[in-house]
């Protein structure tokens, strides 16, 4: 059976790491070349993606290893500028696999589009009329996206709410759409726009906004894990993690940082696969506050055996077709590398990654603190910025860490000393 466990992966050269990933994921030599090519996204493609293009901005792409999800191994591509993130996720995933790995599920690829109706005199009466005409609304919307319907997707339900606002009462119609393997923003926006005249006609009101909701509360992914106390270093570590979690659960100032740690992993993988990081971030944070108070997206508990049980539930509007995934060559290979069959499976992998990213962060915070681990990577960055290379770089890094003095000026001073 193929496994994503690889001892000493970080010690390999960039080329050798890529070779290992190619072999693991079974992607072609051609695809490998795309990953290795920093200009895979050429100017012409870039110029068609966004406006006023003047160049291309590169970021490092790495892979998180050791992920065992529902009994299957994954190597997860991640694009991020932040050191420690990829190593931390890989490390936590190793803890998880010692006890069977991570288990996931999803609620389907259901997106919500909103149609805002204002100036309705008899608003509750109008709400009933909208709901009575559900089938007609479904039919009209589905006619706008025959391809989606052909694949088995389309509008599944219509909901209507009356809300109180600063500008008076409004009728908000929700189209509940199964967008299958698409993120679905364009798909549902088109539907919402197309249904507007009919909604005006049956309600007697005026339709204002017609746009998806990024609070994709019907497109949830879940992941759960039990990590043995022995793996973590004893029951005391389990208790420390739960105490750290309790802080986040009670205090939004801490919860924001707790959730940022989760998104360190998720956003990096969302970016690597060409998906919309802002859609995922806004959905995640809105969902974290859905009870009226901002909460952590993960929960950490102790099992009856004293082991650590973790779970996450998070909206995940990601796709395999459409958007930038359709254009960006590196993103396309990143998706292939994951070997996922559906957008929902992709979302589940991201949930598992977020859970492990959080475990890594909370464990470090609750035990040694983040600075020790960060320090060596930070020192390496600083020494590189100072211009140090090879043997001198290693010496400069060690001195700065030993003396807890990590500054570019000091690195330059040390370089002078060593080059004498
Ligand atoms: P899209 O319109 O490019 O592709 C989706 C379409 O692909 C579907 O409508 C369907 O017709 C077709 N399709 C073919 N095979 C399919 C399959 N197996 N499953 C599902 N659909 C299939 O893309 P999209 O996903 O509708 O929109 C995503 C883009 O919209 C992203 O780039 C996102 O950044 C952007 N966007 C986001 C927001 C927001 O988040 N608020 C708003 C507007 C646009």
Q: Describe it for me?
A:
With 420 residues, the chain is of the alpha+beta class. It starts with 13 loop residues before the first helix and ends with a helix. Helix 1 runs antiparallel to helix 2 (29-36), helix 10 packs across helix 14 (343-366) and helix 15 (371-385) packs across helix 16 (390-402). The mean pLDDT is 95. The chain is 50% helix and 20% strand. The strands form 3 sheets. The protein has a 4-stranded antiparallel sheet with strand order 3-8-10-9. The protein contains 17 helices and 10 strands. The chain has 3 domains: 9-106 and 219-367, Alpha-Beta Complex (3-hydroxy-3-methylglutaryl-coenzyme A Reductase, Chain A, domain 2); 110-212, Hydroxymethylglutaryl-CoA reductase, class I/II, NAD/NADP-binding domain (Alpha-Beta Plaits), CATH 3.30.70; 372-419, no CATH class. The chain has helices at 14-25, 29-36, 43-49, 85-97, 123-132, 134-142, 146-150, 185-203, 229-232, 235-250, 252-272, 277-288, 329-338, 343-366, 371-385, 390-402, 408-419, and strands at 61-69, 72-79, 103-106, 110-118, 154-165, 168-178, 206-213, 220-227, 298-302, 308-315. It binds nicotinamide-adenine-dinucleotide. Nicotinamide-adenine-dinucleotide binds next to helix 7 and helix 8.
């Amino acid at each position: 059976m193929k496994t994503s466990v690889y001892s000493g992966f970080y010690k390999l050269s960039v080329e050798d790491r890529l070779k290992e990933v190619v072999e693991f994921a079974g992607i072609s030599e051609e695809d490998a070349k795309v990953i290795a090519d920093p200009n895979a996204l050429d100017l012409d493609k870039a110029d068609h993606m966004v406006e006023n293009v003047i160049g291309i901005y590169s970021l490092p792409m790495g892979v998180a290893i050791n992920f065992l999800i529902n009994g299957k191994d994954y190597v997860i591509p991640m694009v991020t500028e932040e050191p420690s993130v990829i190593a931390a996720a890989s490390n936590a995933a190793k803890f998880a696999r010692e006890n069977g790995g991570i288990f996931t599920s999803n609620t389907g690829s259901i997106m919500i589009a909103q149609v805002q109706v204002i100036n309705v005199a008899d608003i509750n009466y109008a709400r009933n009329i909208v709901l009575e005409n559900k089938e007609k609304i479904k039919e009209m919307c589905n006619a706008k996206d025959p391809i989606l319907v052909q694949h088995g997707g389309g509008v599944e339900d219509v909901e209507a709410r009356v809300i109180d606002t600063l500008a008076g009462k409004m009728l908000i119609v929700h189209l509940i759409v199964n967008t299958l393997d698409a993120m679905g923003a364009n798909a549902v926006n088109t539907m919402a726009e197309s249904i507007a005249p009919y909604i005006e006609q049956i309600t007697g009101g005026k339709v204002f906004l017609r746009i998806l909701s990024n609070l994709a509360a019907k497109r949830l992914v879940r992941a759960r894990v039990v990590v043995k106390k022995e793996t973590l270093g004893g029951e005391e570590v389990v208790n420390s993690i739960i105490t750290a979690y309790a802080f986040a659960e009670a205090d939004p100032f801490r919860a924001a940082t707790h959730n940022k740690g989760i998104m360190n992993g998720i956003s990096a993988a969302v970016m690597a696969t060409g998906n919309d990081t802002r859609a995922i971030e806004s959905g995640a944070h809105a969902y974290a506050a859905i009870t009226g108070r901002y909460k952590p997206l993960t929960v950490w508990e102790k099992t009856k055996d004293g082991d650590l049980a973790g779970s996450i539930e998070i909206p995940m509007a990601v796709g395999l077709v459409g958007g930038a995934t359709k254009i960006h060559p590196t993103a396309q290979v990143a998706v292939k590398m994951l070997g996922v069959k559906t957008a929902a499976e992709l979302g589940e992998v991201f949930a598992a990654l977020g859970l492990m990213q959080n475990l890594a962060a909370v464990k470090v915070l609750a035990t040694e603190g983040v600075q020790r681990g960060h320090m060596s990577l930070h020192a390496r960055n600083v020494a590189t910025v100072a211009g140090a290379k090879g043997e001198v770089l290693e010496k400069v890094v060690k001195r700065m860490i030993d003396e807890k003095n990590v500054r570019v000026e000091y690195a330059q001073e040390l370089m002078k000393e060593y080059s004498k």
